[in-house]
Amino acid sequence: MLENRAEFGRYLDAPHLAAVGKRILLPVVVLLLGMIGLGLLITRVLHDVWPFTVEDGVNRYFAAHRTDPLNKVTWFFSFVGSTPVIIGVTAIAAIVLLRTLHSWREPLFLCAAVSAQAIVFFFTTLAIDRQRPDVHRLDNSPPTSSFPSGHTSAAFALYAGLALVLATLVRRTWVKWMCWLLVLVPVAVAVSRLYRGMHHPSDVTASFINGSICITIMAFAMLDRRVQWSRLSVSH
Q1: pLDDT in tens, 18-38
Q2: Ramachandran angles phi, psi of 199, nearest 5°
Q3: How far apart are CA 83 and CA 91, in angstroms?
Q4: In angstroms, rounded to a whole number, what is the distance separating the alpha carbons of residues 213 and 130?
Q5: Domain boundaries, the chain
Q6: Which of 21, 24, 192, 204 maximizes the CB count within 10 A of its CB?
Q7: Using CA atoms, how far apart are residues 184 and 190, in angstroms rounded to an integer?
């Protein structure tokens, strides 16, 4: 519950909604247009230019070196980046942060970062009709939704965003570094998607860009304590 519902309503007035648009909506729209532009550039202009000419070789290499143990490991990390798991882990992490920190700031940041990347991913795939790699694919998915990788961008927004929150809460340097080890999860997801023949290297690279920019946008909008409209607290 909020300490003061009237205070919460104050953050929904016109000036604060305008601040939301300026700090969140406009940057996300710019990011979306940039991702679509990047997709068009890769698929229509640079597809026959290095390094994009060697992308298929990377996918063929992974396909030629598949083993049963690696199939299982990459299935697991691909599952980690799937939509149901991302939603579930985001919800659990947000609830734990809310109950632990008694603040809306951090859980809203995490949920907003994950949601923003999903919106950018969805509309980008509608605009960019890219075929998946020409290798045997280990997962079922539409053949023309390769750019960008939704699994990778979602995993990066979630785990890198969570790492950022946790790193700001601890003081010891070695603990901060331990928090940032969470970034290895989306890296494993990206490699798994390449291994399983679901994406080109440029697809997962674009997803890291999508996830990192969404984290940056939401961090400036919600984790910056100078932003008054984000000052919401939860009663102990």
Answers
A1: 666 678 899 999 999 999 999
A2: -145, 155
A3: 12
A4: 22
A5: 5-230
A6: 192
A7: 10
